[in-house]
Amino acid sequence: VKIPLARQRVKDYPHQFSGGMRQRVMIAMALSCNPSVLIADEPTTALDVTIQAQIIELMRELQRDFGTSIIMITHNLGVVAEMCDNVVVMYAGRPIETTTIKRIFQEPKHPYTWGLLHSVPKLYERRERLIPIEGQPPSLIDLPPGCAFAPRCPFAMEICVQADPPDYPVGPSHTAKCYLYSDKATEKEKKAAEAAGLAASSRSGS
């Protein structure tokens, strides 16, 4: 994993390594048994952008060399764009949108995904404040009935707080848990959702 002087440093303690080096050690430990799947939970958190890029490139190289599939768990949409082929967006511990990396940025369908894309800062924009997702996440031990995102969703309908939505097909290899894509939504609501999706995709730079 490209730690300089690895043979001399193999007996060093964690506090003698930088954050990036500790991440490399963890990756080496995870790959030591030659797994077919590597689960990487926030592998770039608390690292500066330069070290983040190095860790991402290292994981790509190891994926090619070992033929290992990687499940990346992250809140960083930049890392998602760099590393992933397929994406599962989760809210309150549940998958709400599943698709390819291209479609999640070009044709996002779930209101929560739109909120995530709108909240990402852009270098070419001057804003005093970012656009937040209003409200607070629910308690995972006391989830509301229906869709967990409904209390924060500007498109919520009566059905949303009554029953958890199923997966609706919204495109090739693309599903979303949202009643906006069911016969419960009016044409006006569907058009508003389409406009919101286009606005979110424009925020992603696609």
From TrEMBL:
Keyword Cell membrane: yes
One example GO MF annotation: ATP binding
Record flagged with keyword Calcium: no
Recorded superkingdom: Bacteria
Domain ABC transporter residues, every copy: 6-45
UniProt keywords, alphabetically: ATP-binding, Cell membrane, Membrane, Nucleotide-binding, Transport
GO biological process entries: peptide transport
Ranges of residues in domain Oligopeptide/dipeptide ABC transporter C-terminal: 96-160
InterPro entries: ABC_Ni/Peptide_Import, ABC_transporter-like_ATP-bd, Oligopep_ABC_C, P-loop_NTPase
Database matches in Gene3D superfamilies: P-loop containing nucleotide triphosphate hydrolases
GO cellular component: membrane
Subcellular compartments: Membrane
Family as reported in the entry's similarity comment: Belongs to the ABC transporter superfamily.
PANTHER family: DIPEPTIDE TRANSPORT ATP-BINDING PROTEIN DPPD, OLIGOPEPTIDE TRANSPORT ATP-BINDING PROTEIN APPD
Protein name per UniProt: ABC transporter ATP-binding protein
Organism of this sequence: Candidatus Segetimicrobium genomatis
